[in-house]
Amino acid sequence: MEAFLVSTGIVAIAEIGDKTQLLALLLAAKFRRPVPIILGIFVATIANHAGAAALGAAISALIGPDTMRWLLAAGFAAMGIWVLVPDKVDDDEAPKAPRFGVFGATVIAFFLLEMGDKTQIATIALAARYSEWWVVTMGTTLGMMIANVPAVLIGQAAATTLPLPVVRVVAALAFFVLAVLLALDAFPQLVG
């Protein structure tokens, strides 16, 4: 349960103001079809984060617990810094026409834009920490949906009402706290 809740919370917070959330806003404004967009986000996130979690679990199996603790602490600190940097989506990153339909365009755009994204990197780190990579995938997927479904449903209004700088600072603090706890070994259950 801890793996699921931590994964959900970290990704839900980190996703606020992320380029994939901005893409969700763009897709909602462009296509005005929330159901296929939401389903596309879900499918793309599961595919992307399952691969990331499997990679994290494989890395964890190759590295000892002490080394893993320091790598995770450094990774979470780096994530904290990265979250503070606002993302932008260029106009040319949004799909021009729904060649594959709204659902297909969403799956392709989300999957590609999530490659190397901070939430994908967080998924790798979380799966390296927790042995149940599939639970991490479920948690990070739920976190993505918590952040992106409102963006799709509310559309442009969400971007103007959410205090993104404050959310970025809270997300960064969460990553920094995890990094410090890991570095101090004050939270040993974070390193399996």
Please tag this protein with its features:
192 residues, mainly alpha, GDT1-like, 78% helix
Average pLDDT score: 77
Strand content: under 5%
Outline the biggest β-sheet: none
Q: What radius of gyration results from the CA coordinates? A: 16 Å
H/I helix tally: 9
Number of self-contained structural domains: 1
Shape: globular
In terms of per-residue confidence, which ranges show pLDDT below 50 for 5 or more consecutive residues? 90-97, 187-192
C-alpha termini separation: 14 Å
Can you walk me through this structure?
This protein is an all-alpha fold. The chain has one domain (1-189). Helices cover 78% and strands 0% of the residues. The two termini are 14 Å apart. Belongs to the GDT1 family.
Structure in a nutshell:
This protein is mainly alpha-helical.
Which helices and strands appear, and what pairs or packs with what?
Layout: H1 2-15, H2 19-31, H3 34-62, H4 65-83, H5 101-114, H6 118-129, H7 133-154, H8 156-161, H9 164-183
GO molecular function, one term: metal ion transmembrane transporter activity
Keywords: Membrane, Transmembrane, Transmembrane helix
Membrane topology: Multi-pass membrane protein
